[in-house]
Structures are given as C-alpha cells and as structure tokens.
Fold this protein.
Amino acid sequence: MKVAVIGTGYVGLVTGTCFADMGNDVWCIDIDRDKIENLKKGIMPIYEPGLEELVRRNYREGRLRFTTDLKEGIEKALFIFIAVGTPPGEDGSADLQHVLNVASEIGKNIDNYKIIVNKSTVPVGTAERVKQEIQKELDARGLNEVEFDVVSNPEFLKEGDAIKDFMRPDRIIIGTDNVRTAELMNELYSSFYRKDDKVIAMDIPSAELTKYAANAMLATRISFMNELSVLCEAAGADIQNVRRGIGSDSRIGKDFLYAGIGYGGSCFPKDVKALIQTAREHGSESKILQSVEDVNKQQRILFVKKVVKHMGEDLEGRVFAVWGLAFKPNTDDIREAPSIDIINGLRERGASFKAYDPIAIETAKEVLGDERIEYEMQYYDVLKDADALLLLTEWHHFRKPDFEKIKMLMKTPIIFDGRNQYEPAKMKEKGFTYFCVGRVQK
Ligand SMILES: NC(=O)c1ccc[n+]([C@@H]2O[C@H](COP(=O)([O-])OP(=O)(O)OC[C@H]3O[C@@H](n4cnc5c(N)ncnc54)[C@H](O)[C@@H]3O)[C@@H](O)[C@H]2O)c1
C-alpha cells in the first residue's frame, strides 16, 4: 500500500520505516532539510535501537523515500499520516499549529481520495478541525467534490523500544466514523499482528482521548508510587517491598510502579498538562491529574533537598559525579528530564558537576550548557575526586558496577541514587553512604 508520513521525528520516522519494512511504499516528508538530507545518507536524527539498520535497508531497497516536497510526497499515497509535534502551549494545552499547518498543506495539494491519519497526540475535537482546514483549502481551489476521510490513530510507542512497540503493538486504535476506512486501516496494519486482531475501532473523539488517558494513567501510577515513597521514608517502610506486594496483585500489575525522581520526556509531562487543560475547556477540573503533576515536580525538589540536607546548603567547591542525563535509558532524549532540574537545583547552590551519559551528552549540552559541568565519555572518569555520585538515569551498565573502583576514585563514597538501583544494606556493607528513594539505609 502507498503511505505518506508528514513529520519525520520520533514517531514519523519509526512509523514510515516500519510500514516500509512490511513491503509498503513509503514517503517520509519533513520541513527540516538537514534532517532529510542526513536521512538520505543514513544519518539518524535520533538514537533509537535498531532504527538505523532498518532505515538504511528500506531506503536502499527503494521502499522508503525522504523528501521535503509535500506535494511529491503525498501524490501517490492513499494514506497520509500526520506525525508532527504538538508541544505544550503557554496554558498547557497542546499547540496545534503544526498539525493545522499540515492539514492546510494537504488541502492545497490533494486532488483525489485520501485517508488522512492523525498520529500526533491531539486533544479531542482535533480531527474535526483538521477536516475543516482541508475542506477550506479544497473549496478555495474549487475542488469541493474531492473526497477524504480523517482518522484518529494515536501512537503508543515508547522511546527506547519504539521499533519493537510499533512492530508488535499491544493494540492499534482506529478512530473513524466510516466502515470502509476502518477496513482499509485494518488492512494496512494487518502485517503487524498474526494471531489476534489488534485493531480496536471506535469513534473519533474516544480514540483521541484514549491516547491521553493511557499516558495520564501511567503517569498517575508513577506519581502514586512516588508519593508513597515519601511516606515509606518517614515511616521506615521500604517502597520496593510495597511495590512487590501490590504489583503481584493481578488487578494492579507490575509495570510503572517504580519510585524514583519522577517521569520526564516528551510525552507524559505535556500530555498530562494537555489533559488537565482539555478538562478545563470542557468545564471540569482534573483534581487527580493536577496532583499527579504536582507530585512529579515535587519529587525532583525532594531529591535536591536530600542532597542538600546531607552535603550542606552551600555547595560551592563541591563536585558531583553524574551518571545518566537522558530522561530514561536507551534514548538521547533530554526533554523534561529530571536530571535538568536536579542539576540546576544544585548548581544554584554553587555545585559543580562531571557528567556522563552513554548517548545523551550532546542533547544535554544544548539544555544544560557547560557552566560548571564537564562532560565525560567514560562513566568511571567522572568519579575521580567527586564528593558524591548522583545516579539519575538507570542505564543497564550502572546495575553492577565495580564498587571498589568507585570507592577508590571518589573523594567520599556517597551515592544519591534517584533510580533505586542498589540495596541499601549491601551498600552499607561496602562502605557507602547511600541515599535512594523510599528506602532508608538501616
Ligand atoms: N516521541 C514519542 O515517544 C511519542 C510517542 C507517541 C506519540 N507521540 C506524539 O507524536 C507526535 C510527534 O512527536 P515526535 O516526538 O515524533 O516529534 P518530533 O519533534 O520528534 O518530530 C516532529 C517532526 O515534524 C516536523 N514538522 C513540523 N512541522 C512540519 C510540517 N509543516 N511539515 C513537515 N514536517 C513538519 C519537524 O521538523 C520534526 O522533524 C506528538 O504529537 C507526540 O506527542 C510521541
């Protein structure tokens, strides 16, 4: 089948590449010329495991094309996916300017039947606005007989696992009011499942809301555990035991129950904010989600306070080693990463840093700059003469480090672990002063 994807970022590039890998003809379109030229040379704009090989192969074999020319890109396609960004506006609502610009460009350039698929995360009611924008342009061109459908097909991939999530989805949400369109969408997606039909077809507003509901639910679980972790520390309980205790309940399940320094990234923070705003626009107040957001912000502040409580309010002359800057492992995405607020919170008090991340150093430099931060490519190098280690992203190779070497390199063996990677009792045996989240060293 013939597919165009407008917006070649995380979602668009993964979507286009995975469709191409299933034998479809795909055009990936973006306004960013450098991005498109680099992709033609096999240079990826993002780090995502497995993506580079898949892009190169499908491009080489002619199923995947890259262009900045929207007209050329959508000409032959039946499906036109919109996968541009929807960043938060000033009031927290999703900024739809890119989506609506694309809709208007589509209206200016189509002259036969197309299925416009909205993959960007957008508030309920957006499909209708996209439809109006396209129709307006068609009418202006005197082409009001040209037919098109607008479908809501939100994306649930996780950065770091994007290819796997797209290739083996838990479910595929298709929001449409047209049976024939639902069948065509089903056909396009049928290569991604063998046994069970993974498609859940529904009305458009419910599909639009489902995406926000999913992210808001996951963010809620994280904030719930973080709130409990504060109580655990105060009451001498252990959040890891509580997590095991409740996660084994099949009604609750084990995922997204890890206490730490809170959620970040390009989706949860903005989607929670946008859903709060959507609720407001519809005359209701989202008390739960407001608390989810507050707890998430608070969790970073509490971590800074923990460091300050032990190391002192004046951190001038103190050097902190940092392990991990990305908002989570397996990505170079630094957007809304807890590391930013934590480093800035301590930097305000005079602290200096030596920071390591296996992939996110370049993206982190753009946000954090280099004032009192040195970046290192080797994780043991940052420990030399450090007053304390801050573990901020749970990269796999931090799980079993050489603790003797750590102790030897550091000025003082103090670890503030924002991701609960080690056992407090064992760390005591090894001679570390160890702070984590929701657990106390006894
Ligand atoms: N990143 C994720 O993990 C994820 C997961 C699920 C859903 N989403 C949602 O998917 C959407 C896209 O997110 P992303 O992370 O891929 O964004 P991104 O910022 O990585 O990519 C967006 C791309 O769109 C391009 N673009 C903007 N305007 C354009 C235009 N008029 N024509 C062509 N290209 C244009 C930009 O140049 C950029 O390359 C958002 O709504 C996001 O909430 C993201």
